[in-house]
Amino acid sequence: MIVCHVLFGCSAHQQHPVPTTPLQRYGRVTNVRGGGLYDILITDEAGTGTQMVLIQLPKKFHKVIWVKLGAFVLVELLEEVATKIHGDILSVLRPEHVLDPPVLTPATVEVDQDSTEDEAEYESGSDNDDDLFVNRNRMHVEEESDDDE
C-alpha cells in the first residue's frame, strides 16, 4: 500500500492519510484547470451536501506529481479565503486506499456512480465510429470499385 504525500514523499509502509483537523477533508478531482489548479468536489461542513472548491497543488510539486481527473485527494482548506483558491492538496490517495470507509463520502460516491454508468456505456459493445476523431484537413474520397472489367 503506497500513499504519495505531497509534503512528505512516497512510502510503502504508510496508511492512507486521515484528516486531523476540521479543515482537512477528502475530495475528488472533477476538473483540471492547469497551472496546478484543480476543481475538487468535497462535502460541506455539516457533511450533508457537497460543494465545488478551487484547490492548488504546491508549486514545488508541479512537475513532480500529476493528479489525474477523478483522483481522490486530501485537501486542507484555508480559514479565510482572500482569493478564489480555497486551499492546498495535502496528499493524493491511491486507488487501494479509496476502498476504506472514511474516504467514501457522499461527494465521492455521487461522482463515482456517474463514472460507472459511463464505463458501462463504453463497454456495452457498440462498435460505431461516430465518436472517433475525424480529420477535417483531409478530403474524404470514396473509392469506387471497378468490378465490371
From TrEMBL:
InterPro entries given in the database record: EIF1AD (IPR039294), NA-bd_OB-fold (IPR012340), RNA-binding_domain_S1_IF1 (IPR006196)
Organism domain of life: Eukaryota
Sequence ranges of Acidic residues compositional bias: 111-132
GO cellular component, one term: nucleus
Domain S1-like: 24-90
Residue ranges, annotated region (Disordered): 104-134
GO molecular function (one): RNA binding
Database matches in SUPFAM superfamilies: Nucleic acid-binding proteins
Protein name, entry field: S1-like domain-containing protein
